[in-house]
Amino acid sequence: MLKPKPNVSQVVVLLIALTLATTAVPAARASDPDNAVFLPVIALGRPAQSALDELIVKLNAAQPGATAAAINQSYGTTTLRVLAPSRALYLLEAPAGVDPEDLAEAMADDPRILYVELNRVTDAPEAIGRSGFAWGGYDPAPYNSQYPQQMLGLPAAHAISQGAGVTVAVIDTGVQLTHPELAGHLSAAGIDFVDGDNRPEDEFSGGANYGAGHGTHVAGIIHLVAPQAQIMPIRVLDTDGRGYSAVIGEAILYALENGAQVINLSLGMPENASDYLEEIVEEAARQGVLVVAAAGNLNNTQQQYPAAADCALGVTAIDPDRVKATFASYGDWVSLAAPGVGIHSTLPVDGYGSWSGTSMAAPFAAGQAALLLSLNPSLSVVQLADLMGGTAVNLNPTNPGYVNQLGAGQIDVLASLLALQTGVIPDLGLLDDDCDRGHSDHGLHRGPGGEATP
Fold it and tell me: Does 214 participate in catalysis according to the annotation?
Protein backbone atom coordinates (compact mmCIF):
# COMPACT_ATOMS: atom_id res chain seq x y z
CA MET A 1 0.00 0.00 0.00
CA LEU A 2 1.29 3.42 -0.90
CA LYS A 3 1.68 6.00 1.78
CA PRO A 4 0.08 9.42 1.18
CA LYS A 5 2.62 11.80 -0.24
CA PRO A 6 3.96 13.80 2.72
CA ASN A 7 4.30 17.56 2.61
CA VAL A 8 3.73 18.29 6.27
CA SER A 9 4.91 21.88 6.33
CA GLN A 10 2.32 22.82 3.71
CA VAL A 11 -0.58 20.71 4.91
CA VAL A 12 -3.43 22.06 6.95
CA VAL A 13 -4.67 20.72 10.21
CA LEU A 14 -7.34 18.69 8.41
CA LEU A 15 -10.71 17.44 8.86
CA ILE A 16 -11.40 16.76 12.50
CA ALA A 17 -14.54 18.13 14.04
CA LEU A 18 -12.81 18.14 17.41
CA THR A 19 -13.53 20.57 20.18
CA LEU A 20 -14.08 24.29 20.10
CA ALA A 21 -13.33 26.02 23.39
CA THR A 22 -12.08 29.41 24.46
CA THR A 23 -9.55 28.22 27.01
CA ALA A 24 -7.04 25.45 27.24
CA VAL A 25 -8.00 22.32 29.14
CA PRO A 26 -5.96 19.56 30.72
CA ALA A 27 -5.07 16.78 28.33
CA ALA A 28 -3.11 13.58 28.22
CA ARG A 29 0.11 12.73 26.48
CA ALA A 30 1.65 9.34 26.40
CA SER A 31 4.72 10.50 28.30
CA ASP A 32 2.96 12.21 31.20
CA PRO A 33 -0.82 11.79 31.06
CA ASP A 34 -1.47 13.38 34.44
CA ASN A 35 0.27 16.69 33.90
CA ALA A 36 0.29 17.50 30.20
CA VAL A 37 -1.70 20.40 28.81
CA PHE A 38 -2.72 21.16 25.24
CA LEU A 39 -2.57 24.84 24.41
CA PRO A 40 -4.98 26.30 21.84
CA VAL A 41 -3.78 26.39 18.28
CA ILE A 42 -2.56 29.76 17.04
CA ALA A 43 -3.03 29.75 13.29
CA LEU A 44 -0.05 31.28 11.50
CA GLY A 45 -1.96 32.78 8.62
CA ARG A 46 -4.39 30.84 6.48
CA PRO A 47 -2.87 27.47 5.60
CA ALA A 48 -2.92 25.82 2.20
CA GLN A 49 -6.17 24.09 1.30
CA SER A 50 -4.86 21.20 -0.76
CA ALA A 51 -1.89 19.04 -1.44
CA LEU A 52 -0.33 21.69 -3.59
CA ASP A 53 0.23 19.68 -6.77
CA GLU A 54 -2.29 16.82 -6.65
CA LEU A 55 -5.56 16.30 -8.53
CA ILE A 56 -8.32 13.72 -8.19
CA VAL A 57 -9.58 12.84 -11.67
CA LYS A 58 -12.62 10.80 -12.70
CA LEU A 59 -12.42 9.62 -16.30
CA ASN A 60 -15.37 9.29 -18.67
CA ALA A 61 -15.09 5.72 -19.93
CA ALA A 62 -17.62 6.43 -22.68
CA GLN A 63 -15.22 8.81 -24.41
CA PRO A 64 -12.46 7.64 -26.76
CA GLY A 65 -9.00 8.09 -25.30
CA ALA A 66 -10.21 8.37 -21.72
CA THR A 67 -7.18 6.78 -20.14
CA ALA A 68 -4.82 8.07 -17.49
CA ALA A 69 -1.94 7.76 -19.93
CA ALA A 70 -3.73 9.89 -22.51
CA ILE A 71 -4.66 12.52 -19.93
CA ASN A 72 -1.08 12.64 -18.69
CA GLN A 73 0.16 13.14 -22.25
CA SER A 74 -2.30 15.99 -22.81
CA TYR A 75 -1.60 17.90 -19.61
CA GLY A 76 1.86 16.82 -18.52
CA THR A 77 0.49 15.21 -15.39
CA THR A 78 1.83 12.07 -13.72
CA THR A 79 -0.19 9.24 -12.21
CA LEU A 80 0.61 8.93 -8.51
CA ARG A 81 -1.76 6.06 -7.95
CA VAL A 82 -5.08 4.55 -8.95
CA LEU A 83 -7.71 5.44 -6.34
CA ALA A 84 -10.34 3.03 -7.65
CA PRO A 85 -9.69 1.15 -10.91
CA SER A 86 -13.27 0.03 -11.42
CA ARG A 87 -14.44 3.63 -11.01
CA ALA A 88 -11.76 5.19 -13.25
CA LEU A 89 -10.53 7.36 -10.38
CA TYR A 90 -6.92 8.49 -10.35
CA LEU A 91 -4.65 10.69 -8.28
CA LEU A 92 -2.49 12.76 -10.62
CA GLU A 93 0.40 15.12 -9.98
CA ALA A 94 0.45 18.46 -11.78
CA PRO A 95 3.63 19.32 -13.69
CA ALA A 96 6.15 21.52 -11.93
CA GLY A 97 5.42 25.22 -12.16
CA VAL A 98 1.76 24.78 -13.14
CA ASP A 99 -0.94 26.14 -10.85
CA PRO A 100 -3.12 23.10 -9.98
CA GLU A 101 -6.29 25.18 -9.73
CA ASP A 102 -5.77 26.59 -13.21
CA LEU A 103 -4.97 23.12 -14.48
CA ALA A 104 -8.12 21.70 -12.88
CA GLU A 105 -10.23 24.38 -14.58
CA ALA A 106 -8.70 23.52 -17.95
CA MET A 107 -9.16 19.78 -17.44
CA ALA A 108 -12.79 20.23 -16.39
CA ASP A 109 -13.69 21.14 -19.98
CA ASP A 110 -12.19 17.93 -21.36
CA PRO A 111 -14.97 15.49 -22.40
CA ARG A 112 -12.74 12.59 -21.36
CA ILE A 113 -13.00 13.77 -17.74
CA LEU A 114 -16.20 13.61 -15.71
CA TYR A 115 -14.77 15.69 -12.87
CA VAL A 116 -11.48 16.92 -11.50
CA GLU A 117 -10.77 18.43 -8.10
CA LEU A 118 -7.84 19.23 -5.86
CA ASN A 119 -6.69 16.66 -3.32
CA ARG A 120 -7.83 18.82 -0.46
CA VAL A 121 -6.57 19.14 3.08
CA THR A 122 -8.66 22.06 4.17
CA ASP A 123 -9.11 23.65 7.59
CA ALA A 124 -10.32 21.77 10.58
CA PRO A 125 -13.56 23.50 11.60
CA GLU A 126 -11.81 24.87 14.66
CA ALA A 127 -8.45 25.70 13.03
CA ILE A 128 -8.38 29.28 14.31
CA GLY A 129 -8.38 28.14 17.94
CA ARG A 130 -9.23 24.94 19.73
CA SER A 131 -8.28 23.02 22.82
CA GLY A 132 -7.65 19.36 23.41
CA PHE A 133 -9.42 16.81 25.51
CA ALA A 134 -9.62 17.06 29.27
CA TRP A 135 -7.81 14.10 30.77
CA GLY A 136 -10.00 12.31 33.30
CA GLY A 137 -7.71 9.59 34.60
CA TYR A 138 -8.29 5.85 34.62
CA ASP A 139 -11.67 5.61 36.33
CA PRO A 140 -14.39 4.47 33.89
CA ALA A 141 -17.24 5.65 36.14
CA PRO A 142 -17.86 9.01 34.37
CA TYR A 143 -17.82 7.18 31.02
CA ASN A 144 -20.47 4.74 32.14
CA SER A 145 -22.75 7.26 33.86
CA GLN A 146 -22.97 10.40 31.75
CA TYR A 147 -25.91 12.46 30.57
CA PRO A 148 -26.28 11.01 27.03
CA GLN A 149 -27.20 7.64 28.53
CA GLN A 150 -30.55 8.89 29.82
CA MET A 151 -30.96 11.49 27.08
CA LEU A 152 -30.83 8.78 24.42
CA GLY A 153 -32.49 5.98 26.41
CA LEU A 154 -29.43 3.75 26.28
CA PRO A 155 -30.07 1.54 29.36
CA ALA A 156 -33.46 0.42 28.05
CA ALA A 157 -32.18 0.28 24.47
CA HIS A 158 -29.50 -2.22 25.48
CA ALA A 159 -32.20 -4.60 26.67
CA ILE A 160 -33.31 -4.72 23.01
CA SER A 161 -30.03 -4.55 21.09
CA GLN A 162 -26.33 -4.12 21.83
CA GLY A 163 -25.03 -4.12 18.28
CA ALA A 164 -23.92 -7.75 18.05
CA GLY A 165 -22.90 -8.80 14.55
CA VAL A 166 -22.36 -5.27 13.25
CA THR A 167 -19.02 -3.67 12.35
CA VAL A 168 -18.57 0.10 12.51
CA ALA A 169 -15.55 1.59 10.73
CA VAL A 170 -13.94 4.53 12.53
CA ILE A 171 -12.00 6.49 9.91
CA ASP A 172 -9.91 8.81 12.03
CA THR A 173 -6.53 9.03 13.82
CA GLY A 174 -6.57 5.34 14.66
CA VAL A 175 -7.47 3.72 17.97
CA GLN A 176 -5.40 2.71 20.97
CA LEU A 177 -5.43 -0.97 20.12
CA THR A 178 -4.70 -2.15 23.66
CA HIS A 179 -7.17 0.08 25.50
CA PRO A 180 -8.86 -2.16 28.07
CA GLU A 181 -12.32 -0.82 27.17
CA LEU A 182 -11.88 -1.44 23.45
CA ALA A 183 -9.32 -4.18 22.87
CA GLY A 184 -11.86 -7.01 22.77
CA HIS A 185 -14.10 -5.17 20.32
CA LEU A 186 -11.73 -4.23 17.50
CA SER A 187 -11.89 -5.77 14.06
CA ALA A 188 -8.75 -7.44 12.75
CA ALA A 189 -9.35 -5.67 9.43
CA GLY A 190 -8.02 -2.34 10.67
CA ILE A 191 -5.47 -0.51 8.53
CA ASP A 192 -3.18 2.52 8.71
CA PHE A 193 -3.14 4.70 5.57
CA VAL A 194 -0.73 7.16 7.19
CA ASP A 195 2.13 4.75 7.90
CA GLY A 196 1.12 2.26 5.22
CA ASP A 197 0.73 -0.77 7.47
CA ASN A 198 -1.98 -2.82 9.17
CA ARG A 199 -1.53 -1.37 12.66
CA PRO A 200 -3.86 1.67 12.99
CA GLU A 201 -2.53 2.80 16.37
CA ASP A 202 -3.69 6.18 17.74
CA GLU A 203 -0.20 7.57 18.19
CA PHE A 204 1.54 10.33 20.10
CA SER A 205 4.71 11.78 18.59
CA GLY A 206 6.82 14.90 18.73
CA GLY A 207 5.10 18.24 18.25
CA ALA A 208 1.70 19.41 19.35
CA ASN A 209 -0.21 16.14 18.85
CA TYR A 210 -3.45 18.07 18.44
CA GLY A 211 -5.17 15.10 16.83
CA ALA A 212 -3.81 12.34 19.04
CA GLY A 213 -6.48 10.50 20.99
CA HIS A 214 -9.31 11.63 18.73
CA GLY A 215 -10.01 8.29 17.08
CA THR A 216 -9.84 6.48 20.42
CA HIS A 217 -12.37 8.92 21.89
CA VAL A 218 -14.72 8.47 18.91
CA ALA A 219 -14.43 4.67 19.10
CA GLY A 220 -15.28 4.74 22.80
CA ILE A 221 -18.51 6.61 22.10
CA ILE A 222 -19.57 3.99 19.57
CA HIS A 223 -18.74 1.30 22.10
CA LEU A 224 -20.80 3.10 24.74
CA VAL A 225 -23.85 3.04 22.46
CA ALA A 226 -23.29 -0.36 20.85
CA PRO A 227 -21.19 -2.38 23.32
CA GLN A 228 -21.28 -5.61 21.33
CA ALA A 229 -20.49 -4.08 17.94
CA GLN A 230 -17.07 -4.51 16.38
CA ILE A 231 -15.04 -1.39 15.60
CA MET A 232 -12.82 -1.32 12.51
CA PRO A 233 -10.07 1.25 13.14
CA ILE A 234 -8.83 2.95 9.96
CA ARG A 235 -6.12 5.56 10.38
CA VAL A 236 -6.16 8.39 7.83
CA LEU A 237 -5.13 11.35 10.04
CA ASP A 238 -1.76 11.83 11.68
CA THR A 239 -1.09 12.95 15.25
CA ASP A 240 -1.64 16.57 14.25
CA GLY A 241 -4.99 15.75 12.66
CA ARG A 242 -3.73 16.06 9.09
CA GLY A 243 -4.85 14.03 6.12
CA TYR A 244 -5.89 14.07 2.46
CA SER A 245 -9.32 13.88 0.85
CA ALA A 246 -8.08 11.26 -1.61
CA VAL A 247 -7.17 8.98 1.26
CA ILE A 248 -10.54 9.51 2.94
CA GLY A 249 -12.24 8.09 -0.14
CA GLU A 250 -9.81 5.19 -0.30
CA ALA A 251 -10.52 4.45 3.35
CA ILE A 252 -14.27 4.39 2.76
CA LEU A 253 -13.80 1.94 -0.09
CA TYR A 254 -11.55 -0.18 2.11
CA ALA A 255 -14.23 -0.26 4.80
CA LEU A 256 -16.82 -1.39 2.23
CA GLU A 257 -14.57 -4.16 0.97
CA ASN A 258 -13.81 -5.43 4.46
CA GLY A 259 -17.27 -5.82 5.93
CA ALA A 260 -18.20 -2.55 7.62
CA GLN A 261 -21.95 -1.90 7.82
CA VAL A 262 -21.63 1.60 9.28
CA ILE A 263 -18.86 4.17 8.71
CA ASN A 264 -18.14 7.02 11.11
CA LEU A 265 -16.33 10.08 9.76
CA SER A 266 -15.64 12.57 12.52
CA LEU A 267 -13.80 14.76 10.03
CA GLY A 268 -14.64 17.08 7.20
CA MET A 269 -13.76 19.58 4.50
CA PRO A 270 -15.43 22.96 4.93
CA GLU A 271 -15.90 25.37 2.04
CA ASN A 272 -15.40 22.88 -0.77
CA ALA A 273 -17.92 20.53 -2.29
CA SER A 274 -16.38 17.24 -3.37
CA ASP A 275 -17.71 15.23 -6.31
CA TYR A 276 -15.23 12.54 -5.31
CA LEU A 277 -16.54 12.13 -1.78
CA GLU A 278 -20.13 12.44 -3.03
CA GLU A 279 -19.49 9.50 -5.36
CA ILE A 280 -17.75 7.36 -2.76
CA VAL A 281 -20.41 7.99 -0.12
CA GLU A 282 -23.16 7.17 -2.62
CA GLU A 283 -21.33 3.97 -3.49
CA ALA A 284 -21.29 3.05 0.20
CA ALA A 285 -25.01 3.73 0.54
CA ARG A 286 -25.86 1.63 -2.50
CA GLN A 287 -23.94 -1.22 -0.94
CA GLY A 288 -26.12 -0.84 2.15
CA VAL A 289 -23.46 0.87 4.29
CA LEU A 290 -24.50 3.97 6.22
CA VAL A 291 -22.02 6.86 6.36
CA VAL A 292 -22.32 9.14 9.40
CA ALA A 293 -20.24 12.33 9.45
CA ALA A 294 -19.60 15.28 11.76
CA ALA A 295 -21.24 18.52 10.65
CA GLY A 296 -18.33 20.70 11.83
CA ASN A 297 -17.60 23.30 14.47
CA LEU A 298 -17.85 26.51 12.45
CA ASN A 299 -21.03 27.77 14.17
CA ASN A 300 -22.49 28.77 10.81
CA THR A 301 -24.33 27.26 7.85
CA GLN A 302 -21.22 26.49 5.78
CA GLN A 303 -21.55 22.99 4.41
CA GLN A 304 -18.88 20.46 5.29
CA TYR A 305 -18.02 17.38 3.29
CA PRO A 306 -18.64 14.50 3.54
CA ALA A 307 -21.38 15.44 6.06
CA ALA A 308 -23.21 17.42 3.37
CA ALA A 309 -23.03 14.60 0.82
CA ASP A 310 -26.48 13.57 -0.38
CA CYS A 311 -26.17 10.01 0.93
CA ALA A 312 -24.48 10.80 4.27
CA LEU A 313 -26.05 11.62 7.62
CA GLY A 314 -24.51 14.89 8.81
CA VAL A 315 -24.70 15.17 12.60
CA THR A 316 -24.42 18.38 14.62
CA ALA A 317 -23.99 18.77 18.38
CA ILE A 318 -26.27 19.78 21.24
CA ASP A 319 -25.68 20.23 24.96
CA PRO A 320 -27.40 18.52 27.93
CA ASP A 321 -30.29 21.03 27.69
CA ARG A 322 -30.94 20.09 24.05
CA VAL A 323 -29.57 23.45 22.92
CA LYS A 324 -27.25 23.76 19.95
CA ALA A 325 -23.64 23.67 21.09
CA THR A 326 -22.03 27.09 20.77
CA PHE A 327 -19.49 25.78 18.26
CA ALA A 328 -21.78 23.51 16.22
CA SER A 329 -22.48 24.07 12.54
CA TYR A 330 -26.10 24.06 11.40
CA GLY A 331 -28.29 24.47 8.34
CA ASP A 332 -30.81 22.72 6.13
CA TRP A 333 -28.07 20.29 5.02
CA VAL A 334 -27.72 18.83 8.54
CA SER A 335 -29.54 15.52 9.09
CA LEU A 336 -29.54 14.93 12.85
CA ALA A 337 -28.26 16.19 16.19
CA ALA A 338 -26.71 14.31 19.11
CA PRO A 339 -24.91 15.11 22.38
CA GLY A 340 -21.53 16.70 21.74
CA VAL A 341 -20.62 18.77 24.80
CA GLY A 342 -18.47 17.40 27.61
CA ILE A 343 -18.57 13.81 26.36
CA HIS A 344 -16.57 11.29 28.40
CA SER A 345 -14.91 8.53 26.44
CA THR A 346 -11.79 6.43 26.04
CA LEU A 347 -8.36 8.06 25.58
CA PRO A 348 -4.77 6.92 25.28
CA VAL A 349 -3.14 5.58 27.25
CA ASP A 350 -5.66 3.24 28.95
CA GLY A 351 -7.68 6.16 30.29
CA TYR A 352 -10.73 8.35 29.83
CA GLY A 353 -11.49 12.00 29.38
CA SER A 354 -13.88 14.65 28.14
CA TRP A 355 -14.01 16.23 24.69
CA SER A 356 -16.53 18.47 22.95
CA GLY A 357 -17.33 18.76 19.26
CA THR A 358 -19.52 17.46 16.48
CA SER A 359 -16.89 14.73 16.25
CA MET A 360 -18.37 13.44 19.49
CA ALA A 361 -21.97 13.76 18.26
CA ALA A 362 -21.52 11.72 15.07
CA PRO A 363 -20.50 8.43 16.77
CA PHE A 364 -23.64 8.46 18.92
CA ALA A 365 -25.61 8.26 15.66
CA ALA A 366 -23.24 5.65 14.22
CA GLY A 367 -23.74 3.53 17.34
CA GLN A 368 -27.51 3.92 17.02
CA ALA A 369 -27.34 2.62 13.45
CA ALA A 370 -25.36 -0.41 14.69
CA LEU A 371 -28.09 -1.23 17.24
CA LEU A 372 -30.78 -1.01 14.57
CA LEU A 373 -28.85 -3.17 12.10
CA SER A 374 -28.20 -5.75 14.78
CA LEU A 375 -31.95 -5.99 15.33
CA ASN A 376 -32.70 -6.11 11.60
CA PRO A 377 -29.66 -6.61 9.33
CA SER A 378 -31.72 -6.18 6.17
CA LEU A 379 -32.43 -2.48 6.72
CA SER A 380 -31.36 -0.21 3.89
CA VAL A 381 -29.60 3.09 4.56
CA VAL A 382 -32.80 4.92 3.62
CA GLN A 383 -34.74 2.95 6.22
CA LEU A 384 -32.04 3.48 8.83
CA ALA A 385 -32.10 7.21 8.22
CA ASP A 386 -35.90 7.32 8.42
CA LEU A 387 -35.90 5.35 11.67
CA MET A 388 -33.31 7.66 13.19
CA GLY A 389 -34.88 10.85 11.91
CA GLY A 390 -38.52 9.82 12.28
CA THR A 391 -38.12 9.06 15.98
CA ALA A 392 -35.90 12.06 16.78
CA VAL A 393 -36.81 14.65 19.40
CA ASN A 394 -37.93 17.98 17.94
CA LEU A 395 -35.32 20.60 18.83
CA ASN A 396 -37.21 23.67 17.60
CA PRO A 397 -38.72 24.47 21.03
CA THR A 398 -35.30 24.61 22.70
CA ASN A 399 -33.62 26.31 19.74
CA PRO A 400 -35.88 29.14 18.55
CA GLY A 401 -32.95 30.76 16.77
CA TYR A 402 -32.24 27.62 14.74
CA VAL A 403 -35.67 26.39 13.69
CA ASN A 404 -35.35 23.51 11.22
CA GLN A 405 -31.57 24.04 11.12
CA LEU A 406 -30.60 21.09 13.33
CA GLY A 407 -31.81 18.30 11.10
CA ALA A 408 -34.72 16.07 12.04
CA GLY A 409 -33.85 16.59 15.72
CA GLN A 410 -32.01 14.86 18.51
CA ILE A 411 -31.57 11.14 17.99
CA ASP A 412 -33.60 8.96 20.37
CA VAL A 413 -31.97 5.54 20.37
CA LEU A 414 -34.65 3.78 22.42
CA ALA A 415 -37.52 5.23 20.38
CA SER A 416 -35.95 4.08 17.12
CA LEU A 417 -35.53 0.52 18.38
CA LEU A 418 -39.11 0.42 19.65
CA ALA A 419 -40.35 1.66 16.29
CA LEU A 420 -38.37 -1.05 14.51
CA GLN A 421 -39.81 -3.69 16.84
CA THR A 422 -43.31 -2.66 15.79
CA GLY A 423 -42.28 -3.02 12.14
CA VAL A 424 -43.33 0.54 11.33
CA ILE A 425 -40.70 2.75 9.73
CA PRO A 426 -41.49 6.46 9.28
CA ASP A 427 -41.41 7.73 5.71
CA LEU A 428 -39.33 10.81 6.42
CA GLY A 429 -37.19 10.93 3.31
CA LEU A 430 -34.11 11.98 5.25
CA LEU A 431 -31.98 10.38 2.53
CA ASP A 432 -32.96 10.35 -1.11
CA ASP A 433 -34.19 7.07 -2.63
CA ASP A 434 -31.19 7.21 -4.97
CA CYS A 435 -29.10 6.29 -1.92
CA ASP A 436 -30.84 2.93 -1.64
CA ARG A 437 -29.30 -0.28 -2.86
CA GLY A 438 -32.27 -1.01 -5.13
CA HIS A 439 -34.55 -3.17 -3.00
CA SER A 440 -35.73 -0.89 -0.23
CA ASP A 441 -38.48 -3.01 1.28
CA HIS A 442 -36.29 -5.70 2.92
CA GLY A 443 -39.21 -7.56 4.42
CA LEU A 444 -41.16 -4.41 5.28
CA HIS A 445 -43.61 -2.40 3.25
CA ARG A 446 -45.03 1.08 3.26
CA GLY A 447 -48.36 1.48 4.96
CA PRO A 448 -51.18 3.79 3.89
CA GLY A 449 -49.42 6.78 5.46
CA GLY A 450 -46.10 5.92 3.82
CA GLU A 451 -44.65 4.08 6.79
CA ALA A 452 -43.11 0.64 6.37
CA THR A 453 -44.90 -2.27 8.00
CA PRO A 454 -44.37 -6.05 8.07
Answer: yes
CATH hierarchy code of domain 50-120: 3.30.70.80
Nearest to 196 by CA among 140, 250, 271: 250
What per-residue confidence (pLDDT) applies to 134?
A: 85
Those residues with Cβ within 8 angstroms of residue 398's Cβ, 6 or more apart along the chain or in another chain: 321, 322, 323
**Which entry of 187, 359, 374, 416 is annotated as an active-site residue?**
359
Instruction: List the domain boundaries for the chain.
Output: 50-120, 134-448
- Cite the DSSP H helix spans in 166-325: 214-225, 245-257, 275-286
Tell the burial category of 13 from Cβ atoms under 10 Å away from its Cβ (0-12, 13-18, 19+). buried
The separation between CA 84 and the C-alpha centre of its own chain, rounded to angstroms, equals 20
Annotated active-site residue in 179, 214, 217, 442? 214
Rounded to whole angstroms, the Cα distance separating 136 from 343 reads: 11
Q: Which of 309, 359, 368 is nearest to 172 (CA)?
A: 359
Give exposure, 262-275, as e/b (b: 16+ Cβ within 10 Å). Answer: bbbbbbbbbebebe
Per-residue pLDDT tens digits for 301-317: 999 999 999 999 999 99
Tens digits of residue pLDDT in 177-199? 999 999 999 999 999 998 999 99
* Distance, CA of 8 to CA of 91 (rounded, Å): 18
**Residues 172, 202, 386, 412: which is the catalytic one?**
172
Q: Is 202 a catalytic residue?
A: no
Query: What superfamily in CATH does domain 134-448 come from?
Result: Peptidase S8/S53 domain (3.40.50.200)
Burial grade of 214 (CB within 10 A; 0-12, 13-18, 19 or more): buried
| Whether residue 34 lies in the annotated active site | no
